[in-house]
Amino acid sequence: MSLSTQEKFKYSMQRIFSQFSQVLNLKELSFRQEGYLTIADMQGPHGSIQVICGPPEYRAEIFVTSVETGKRLGLPELYEIKSVRDWLESYKSTTEKLTKIEADVEWVFRLLANGLKESGEFAWLYK
User: Fold this and answer.
1) Which of 26, 103, 107, 109 qualifies as a cystine partner to 98, CB 3.0-4.6 A?
2) What is the pTM of this model?
3) Number of structural domains in the chain
4) Residue 53 region, left (φ>0) first, then alpha (ψ -120 to 50), else beta?
5) Span 100-115, mean pLDDT?
6) How far apart are CA 58 and CA 45, in angstroms?
7) How far apart are CA 19 and CA 67, in angstroms?
């Protein structure tokens, strides 16, 4: 991942994390590098969120881990939950003026703030 892409990802994560801090029950945001991947970690009281950005397409990918179930859910597993699937199918992006990375990060936080809300499994995520 180019330095420029890494910085855009980190900046977008920090900016949007702070915008959603009143809604989401997530503690500090931290970053780490693993080869070409930049990984953003956020901890909640009963789980964690990981957003990974890297090759081949430099898209942000989300993973939600619940302490109670021990499951690490990516988008395909989240899509299997009816309330999440309904939100995903009805969500209309308003990010046409953003870069691909900024749009991905914005979408991730909207999914966290709105798309997982109806599933009791993710109640820990909300204030």
Assistant:
1) 103
2) 0.90
3) 1
4) beta
5) 93
6) 29
7) 25
Amino acid, single-letter form, for residue 54: G
Range of the domain at 103: 3-125
Residue 48 identity: S
Q: What is the pLDDT of residue 3?
A: 65
CA-nearest of 44, 71, 88, 18 to 10 is: 18
Q: Which residues contact 35 (CB under 8 A, 6 or more apart)?
A: 54
For the stretch 26-32, contacts whose Cβ atoms lie closer than 8 Å and that sit 24 or more positions apart, written own/partner, are 26/125
Q: pLDDT tens digits, residue range 36-92?
A: 899 999 999 999 999 999 887 778 999 999 988 889 999 999 999 999 999 999 987
The pairing of strands 72-73 and 47-54 is unpaired
Beta strands in the chain (DSSP E): 29-34, 37-44, 47-54, 59-66, 72-73
pLDDT of residue 111: 95
17-50 in b/e form (b: 16+ CB < 10 A) is beeeeeebbbeebeeeeeeeebbbbbebebbbbe
Inter-residue contact 34 to 46 (CB < 8 Å): no
